[in-house]
Amino acid sequence: MGLQSLEIQDFRNITTASLVFSPGLNLVSGENAAGKTSLLEAIYCLGRVRSFRTPVAAQPIRDGQSAFRLVGRVLSHEGRQIPIGIERQKAGLRVHFDRQPIRRLSDLAGSFPVQVLSGDTPTILNGGPRYRRQTLDWALFHVEHAYREVWQRYTRVLRQRNAALRTHAPVKQVIAWDAELLDAAAYIHGFRQKYFEALEPHLQAEVKLLLPEKETTLRYQSGWPANMTLSDALSQSLEKDRVRGFTHYGPQRSDFSLLVNGKGVVSHCSRGQQKVAVVSFMLAQIQLQQDQPAPRGVFLLDDLTSELDVPHQQRVLSALRDLDTQVFVSAIEPEAVDTVAWQEVKKFHVEHGVIQEVV
């Protein structure tokens, strides 16, 4: 399973909680503002060290308290139980993985994959290019072990080149970084292209199940003009880069889009179909991840019944069950979610931040 247990202290309206989860379906019910989404947010924070609800890092700290603390136990792909601990203070952060302090958050990447779909959070459709790049990078952290190192190398060299541009350094000092930048960029571009090529058939299979009347394709943009190499793009934009003070072309400008029947999803699909298309993309990522020797993660679905009719709810849950992934679903009424087909189910009820398992 993915997440075996979680201890929560002073997170949102949750004063304290100690929970043990099912490796299959975990259904979280309760009234609006009871704390259902806060539980899912805490699980997400354990994997990403940030919230999916706010960019303000300290916001989830419970009112009147100095910090929140999360301690989770996840199962590695070798079957070993690994503790992850996070303490977020208003002015700082401490993270421990397998009882060792983590200095760079990227060192935690790949240890606990987590996907979330919530009506109030960005998606690959509306989150913008930066969000989509982050989504792509985190996915690659989980399935390609060499990606993190080359991504860190590229980021470091890009910072150096941009610093030279900002300080109006001589051209020779700027282009001195180009060889290493181009080398790292080539690896990043290759990893990303390979990832999308591997993801596409999984995406088409998921779409066939969830949106059988639609055809979905992925379109990847490298971050520089398609009719030239990155080396040529950097050379041609050098003077403009010196004026702007940063490097315009490169993997840091890449993007991708999801097309349905050859058109943009937002303009071509209803809100419910858009949500299903995003779910299809996430499920495809999980399927690809399971093809690799990667740790098993979790799928968080906040308010399943929102914008999805009953047939699509059933299709989504059926697809998740077939993927054999750990799932957390929130709903106001537990009866609204059909759990019959799941072999291992745990139900939790939340009221005023108090979480109790329903036996």
Structure report:
The protein is α/β, with parallel strands linked by helices. It has a domain at 1-113 and 295-359: Rossmann fold, CATH 3.40.50.300. Helices cover 38% and strands 24% of the residues. The chain has helices at 36-48, 128-143, 147-166, 171-175, 178-210, 230-236, 238-244, 265-268, 271-290, 310-322; strands at residues 3-11, 14-20, 25-29, 67-75, 81-89, 92-97, 100-101, 114-117, 216-221, 255-260, 263-264, 298-301, 326-331, 345-351, 354-358.
Topology:
Elements: E1 3-11, E2 14-20, E3 25-29, H1 36-48, E4 67-75, E5 81-89, E6 92-97, E7 100-101, E8 114-117, H2 128-143, H3 147-166, H4 171-175, H5 178-210, E9 216-221, H6 230-236, H7 238-244, E10 255-260, E11 263-264, H8 265-268, H9 271-290, E12 298-301, H10 310-322, E13 326-331, E14 345-351, E15 354-358
Question: Care to give the gist of this entry?
Answer:
The chain is α/β, with parallel strands linked by helices and about 350 residues long. Helices cover about 40% and strands about 25% of the residues. The chain has a domain at about 1-115 and about 295-359: Rossmann fold, CATH 3.40.50.300.
Low-confidence regions: none
Looking at CATH, the homologous superfamily of the domain at 1-113 and 295-359 is P-loop containing nucleotide triphosphate hydrolases
The CATH class of the domain at 1-113 and 295-359 = Alpha Beta
**Individual helix count:** 10
Task: Please state the overall shape, judged from the principal axes of the Cα atoms.
Answer: globular
CATH architecture of the domain at 1-113 and 295-359: 3-Layer(aba) Sandwich
